[in-house]
Amino acid sequence: MRKSLKVCYSVLLALVLIIPLAACGKEEVQKIRVAEVTRSIFYAPQYVAIEKGFFKEEGLEIDLKTTPGGDKTMTALLSNGADVALVGSETSIYVSAQGSKDPVINFAQLTQTDGTFLVSRNKVDNFSWDQLKGSTFLGQRKGGMPQMAGEFVLKKNGIDPHNDLTLIQNIDYANIATAFASGTGDYVQLFEPTASVFEKEGKGHIIASFGTESGHIPYTTFMAKESFLKDKQDTAEKFTRAVYKAQKWVYEHSAEETAKAIQSFFPDTDLELIETVVDRYKKQESFAKNPILDKEEWNNLQNIMEDAGELPKRISHDSLVNTEIAQQVTKK
User: Fold this and answer.
1) How confident is the model at residue 26 (pLDDT cuts 50, 70, 90)?
2) Residue 54: which domain range?
3) Residue 150, φ and ψ in degrees, nearest 5
4) Strands 104-111 and 220-225
């Protein structure tokens, strides 16, 4: 009996000693609520970071929600419904112009070009931008970055979008592709994968890239309130490091491998189509190669907004961009 008691005490003592040691060795996982403006293959590195466990390696659990539209995404961030927002950098400028005691700061860039393509109804063998003159062009919603980048490119190529062609901008984003498929417009500005689907189905032909033409801009970035970045700088650094790992992974692996990695985020999209889109964005370097949003990109963004008459006021790079976190991550 005494021998049995001794064994029981020994087992209990071992458990008492082991459990605290195990608890000490386990790092607490922190949940980060991310609101993305839309679900898009354009954001492939974000999904790679989740799927390949790069966030998990940093002790982070990502609660990803799609909040359609820049206004809804920013509302989620400002109302504390999200910790981090993935949205166009222009939204941080709009919020700042309205006045905020806790400004929204861009801290990690995900995409660095516009993501739309010029699609023609008829096949064009030798395309030149002046062919759009006199045509009907189905553009994006007024005030949005796709529309501003689109008009910037047209002007860059000597076309006045409001006089040299018939510009249609009163169709909701979700219905633009349907309107073109139904016969509206000679040309349309479309995101992927719709542009590639139209080409595959013979409904249109991709003839130019607005992303290539408009140059590098902070098209989509991760942003958070200034207070979050100050109070949880270590968390922001871990988050950015995971993003950077994914950015490198995408450029170090084939479009096919990336497509397979992110397929679960697009269950209704054919794997071959995902690969086509990833390859197209990768070749024109739409995916940022690192999370640093530099001054040149920031100024290019504001130039495009100003040219479109949508810039409330010019705001310095230092005011709404934090590059310290990204620079620290990339140096390591």
Assistant:
1) low
2) 30-113+217-331
3) -65, -45
4) antiparallel
Q: If DSSP codes are grouped into helix, strand and coil, which group holds residue 248?
A: helix
Q: How far apart are CA 246 and CA 86, in angstroms?
A: 15
Residue from 68, 30, 80, 28 nearest 236 by CA: 30
Q: Which residues in 88-232 belong to E strands, given as ranges?
A: 104-111, 116-120, 136-138, 166-168, 187-191, 205-209, 220-225
285 exposure class (CB count in 10 Å sphere: 0-12, 13-18, 19+):
middle
**Statement to judge: residues 124 and 181 lie in one domain:** yes
Q: What is the dihedral of CA 222, 228, 231, 236, to 10 degrees?
A: -10
Write out the two tokens for 97: 């112009």
Examine the domain organization and report whether 93 and 160 are in the same domain. no
Rounded to a whole number, what is the distance in angstroms from the first to the last CA of the chain?
60
Q: Are residues 238 and 96 in the same domain?
A: yes
Whole-Å CA distances, 206 to 41, 145, 189, 193, 275:
17, 20, 10, 11, 17
- Whether 263 is covered by a domain: the verdict is yes
Residues 199 and 284 in one domain: no
Would the pTM of this model clear 0.70, i.e. be above it? yes
Q: How many domains does the chain have?
A: 2
CA dist., res. 138 & res. 180, Å (int): 7
Q: pLDDT (tens digit, 9 = 90+) per residue, 53-92? A: 999 999 999 999 999 989 999 999 999 999 999 999 999 9
Q: Which amino acid is at 148?
A: M
Q: Do 131 and 57 belong together in one domain?
A: no
Q: In the prediction, which pLDDT does 25 show? A: 46
Q: Give the CATH number of the domain where residue 151 resides.
A: 3.40.190.10
SS3 content of the chain, % helix, strand, coil (to 5): 50, 15, 35
309 and 256 share one domain? yes
- Do 132 and 108 share a structural domain? no
Give the three-state DSSP class for 68.
coil
Peptide bond into 193 cis (omega under 30): yes
Identity of the amino acid at 146:
P
